[in-house]
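thoughts on my protein:
***
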Amino acid sequence: MAIWQFKLHLFPAESPKRGDYGRLGEIIASDDPETVDWWSDYQPHAGFEDMIDSIFPEIESWAPQVRIWGQDGGNMASVWRDDDGKVEWIEFRLDARAFGEALVCRVSDFAKLLGCVLVTQTGQVLEPEPSLILEAFQGSLAKKFVNDPRGTLRKLKEDDGDK
């Protein structure tokens, strides 16, 4: 993932697992968005990937269980499936260099149609409302990098040195 991409995971709002993580707007532990099997008890309706086709063109995937749309390093979406064809993962990566409200609205509408909440890379749980996504984006690493690439990289290096 490129540093200028703002990642949004889509998780079913009605997933029993979501109940373990509190109210919307709270933070999920940073490792949980990528380790919890959010989709195990809930699957999106048939044809949902056609809706992604209307947002981005599909591109060649590097793996048979992953479908990818958009542009690598730019705006993109991906859907991961297990060996049985069940959805395991849905995510959007939005390019902060060309971030636009129209795209945010389309992602928000898609999430609403699937009955999903959005989870940022830092674990913030959001209702699929454009204003909430835009607010989360304003504080994101992707936005900071676009505004001040050198300063952001310097800060990351300093923070990494403190560990």
Remarks:
- The mean pLDDT is 86.
